[in-house]
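Narrative of activities, Objective 1.

The group set out to show that a structural description can be obtained from nothing but a protein's sequence at a throughput compatible with the screening campaign. Below is one input-output pair from the validation batch, recorded exactly as produced.
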Amino acid sequence: MFNGSTYKRCACKEPALDSNGQPLLHSNGKAKLRQIGSDCPLLKKRDHGSWYYYVKLPDGPRGERRRPRKGGFLTQKAAEKAAQKLWDEAHNGIDVDSRETVEAYLHRWLKKRVDLKRSTRDDYEDYLNRIFIPGLGHLQMRELRDRHIQEVFQEIWELNEVKKANRLAAQHAKEACDAAYKAWKTAPTPRPPELRQNWNAAKAALKEARTKPRQDTGPGRQKKFLDTLSAALQDAVAEKLITENWAKLVKIPKYERPDPLVWTDERVARWRETGKKPGPVMVWTPEQTGQFLDSAVEHPMYTMWHLMVFRAPRRGEATGLPWTELDMTKGTANIVETLVTNSAYEVWEDTPKSRSGKRTLTLDSATFALLTAWRDVQKAQREQWEAKHREDSDKYGPYVNSGYVFTQPDGRPWHPDNVSQAFERLIKRLGLPPIRLHDLRHCAASLSLAAGLSMKAIQALLGHASYSLTADTYTSLMPQFEQAAADAPVDLVPRRGAAPAPTEPDGDREPVPAPEAAPQGPPQLVLVRNEGGTSSPAETAA
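Output recorded for this entry:
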């Protein structure tokens, strides 16, 4: 049991008296007041005043007395329970005297995390300053509970509903704007001036609607928010500032990593009809990949994209590949650094995402030949640029000997965002089903899997630290191989024979000879063996 006491007091006041029993006055002549406290005669009433606790804790490390007090409890039992909890926390090593706020602690925690990559630090700083410090920063660390964190996410969900309404309003404004434009465009000349006025008003309304926030904070982003706070609170538990990691008790929508989907003919047709992608992560078929590569041959980034299609470096790993890590004798590329960018369009060098991200890629013969030719092209570009610089130094700056494999004509490396934008523009111009530049890694994984590579080899190719990540997320079977896998078990089952084929068989199926006559009986379903080894049901007599 705690060492201390509980007592009751109130906020009632009475005139303050001097040693002679005379009222003390302020400079303005008004009487000074003092709190009666525990001497108030009304404290005997149950609903008057509140209960306090007073705890005697062991002295601090420098011999300072520690006697915490706290009031505001409705009952003596509640005060005793709170005092016991404080006593237990103190004897378990918790710093019960700490008055550090959540804001002060989060700033201190982020400052000591010198182990973070710059991009990760930027994300953490954004999440803490934008989400958690405004909602939790005023609380003391000892006061923080899971319900406070839950309320922060409740506000996020409520804002998502507002964003949903904003998206709907923007959609209606777009439809109204299109209708107003069509009415003006199709009107016979001379067009009535009110049609133009209506169109201008609709454009202004659409512009206003699009200024409001419309992008949801989805489950994936919410998980990143909560994981960041959880990491900070876990260190607070280790420091004995709090008893447990309250973030682990918070409930948020479940996040499921999107599975890659292949652009089948049916999905392509639906996309061309509606303009909507079936999923956020899409993968080209080998035919679509070949169409892209054939059409991109003349593009300045073709060699880089070819490398990404077949050897799967990330965008920053490809743009940050230096010639010093490309062995043109052995035909290998060492992935040891990457170019990273942020929302401010800044670029800097960093190490790959994980320890396994540092890897050596063996180049295929086609990519090796392209890199050999590109090296000569880059040398020619340098000579041409230096000649232009000598002729007109005001227009052409000096050549930048950056040492990167994939560079612009002046020697500077490509900005990673520019590579993504150029890729998106090209596939849009070609009319190919859309994928992200990062999805070329999924294409490389799928092609490698279809070619017979083991999952372990694909994990090494992609530079994943987790085998399950490769198996569950970064590989998509091509449709033709899925069909072969589905037919394989059927081919293992021996059957006595097949029923006659339909009178009008499909064009790619040949009629199967009828079996010998059998006694008549009730009709049964049997399987018709097709040319490809597949089977289909047919009705025959037993």
